Amino acid sequence: MAEVKLTYEWGDGVYTLLSWFKKEKVKNARVLVAGAGALGNEVVKNLALFGVGHIYVVDFDQIEISNLTRSVLFRESDAMAHSYKAEVVARRAMEINPQIKVTPIVGNLFSEVGFGLYRSVDVVIGCLDSRIARYQLNRLCMRAGKTWIDGSIENLTGAVRVYAPGVCCYECGLSREEFNNIMLRTGCADVVRTQGKEGRVATTPISASIVGALQVQEAMKVIHQDDNAPTPFKTLQGKMLRYEGMTNSMNIYKFASWKSNCPAHERWDNIEKGEGLSASLTMKETMEQVKSLLAVTEVELNMRNNKFIDVIATDHPQKEFEVMVPESKLDAYIKANKELRQLSYKTLIHKHFFENIGERFPYMNLTLQEIGFPPYDVVEVTTEKGVYHVELTNDAHLYDID
Ligand SMILES: [Zn+2]
């Protein structure tokens, strides 16, 4: 029998019956999903079923057996193979809907995802399980001017909150104690801290699927936002929806918080496109190109989300190690080094690092990526004429962005 080739457009005859559904908007939409755990699985599955054209999924973690109870896209074989969550989620979502593209990014959402990607998506969905990650994601979304939809689950309950620039900010809503806790974990610049996991909470597949579904429903509303025409939706912008499975209740609370002096509200609007710039260029090449692009003679690249560490020193025994990695890769470096791995937990490890990289940086032949700028990032540059933000535009193709 001859092979019959199916020709169809995803959602035809189904979504086309919905008066509010705009097929072109959904097909052309880009959504960034931060986290590929229980919520991330549900969120990506639903985005794929809706036919959202391009999904980017970020997670640095590998699959474990315990994830299987509430992650619809994972299989036992993935846990055995210690596969990366983001990669498996991407592959399975494209099996569900072969007409979309899902790009996995294995890495940290703060230091290993180019800021250009945050700027180019329609909406960001947070599927995270720690306050630090939410704090960091909020900073990037506010900087990029993007709405982000936060989901959280615990036992039979769950909550969805929608943060948007000018309306509601995660950092503004933190209590002093919560804020101090985050600073304790992220703040101390020169001492190594392995990122301890926050206490694990028990979750169920039910709360994950309910919260993940509501997050995608809110994302669809953002995708359909139209400044020139009214939409029939009420959104959760500046609100929290809380679902309580024990008692079958669902309530919406106002909780918008936007303070005037919050550092998270710094918006990067004026971005210089660096058409020839890429994270694969060396520091030396980059400096030359940036000087000519901005018509300046002095440049210093400021690392806002990462640091470059050349040497670490332990106090007991007193020893130096030449590491040459971005801070985001230091944990992995320490775990992979037998001598460092076996040190007592009491040993202090000091880092020697670079945050602002100017003419006197000693490693000019390293690439931006080796130093800790991800592809398609936006680099803050201080010059004699002021501060600029320059995009590594030549990397856009890595994310299918023209
Ligand atoms: Zn704020």
Quickly list its features.
402 residues; alpha/beta; Rossmann fold; 2 domains; 8-stranded mixed β-sheet; 5-stranded mixed β-sheet; 16 strands; binds zinc ion
Write the H/E string, N to C.
HEHEHHEHEHEEHHEEEHEEEHHEEHEE
What spatial order of strands do you see in the largest sheet?
3-2-1-4-5-6-7-8
Number of strands: 16
**CATH secondary-structure class of the largest domain:** Alpha Beta
Q: Helix/strand-derived class?
A: alpha/beta
Task: Tell me the CATH superfamily of the largest domain.
Answer: NAD(P)-binding Rossmann-like Domain
CATH fold annotation of the largest domain: Rossmann fold
Brief account:
By secondary structure, the protein is of the alpha/beta class. The protein has 12 helices and 16 strands.
What can you tell me about this protein's structure?
It is built from twelve helices and 16 strands. By secondary structure, it is α/β, with parallel strands linked by helices. The protein starts with 22 loop residues before the first helix and ends in an 11-residue tail after the last strand. It folds into two domains: 15-265, Rossmann fold (3-Layer(aba) Sandwich), CATH 3.40.50.720; 271-397, no CATH class. A hairpin with a 4-residue loop joins strand 7 and strand 8 (249-254). 28% of the residues lie in helices and 22% in strands. The mean pLDDT is 93. The chain has an eight-stranded mixed beta sheet with strand order 3-2-1-4-5-6-7-8, with helices on both faces. A five-stranded mixed beta sheet has the order 9-16-15-10-14. The chain has a three-stranded antiparallel beta sheet with strand order 12-11-13, with no helix packed on it. Zinc ion binds at residues 169, 171-172, 259, 262, 264-265.
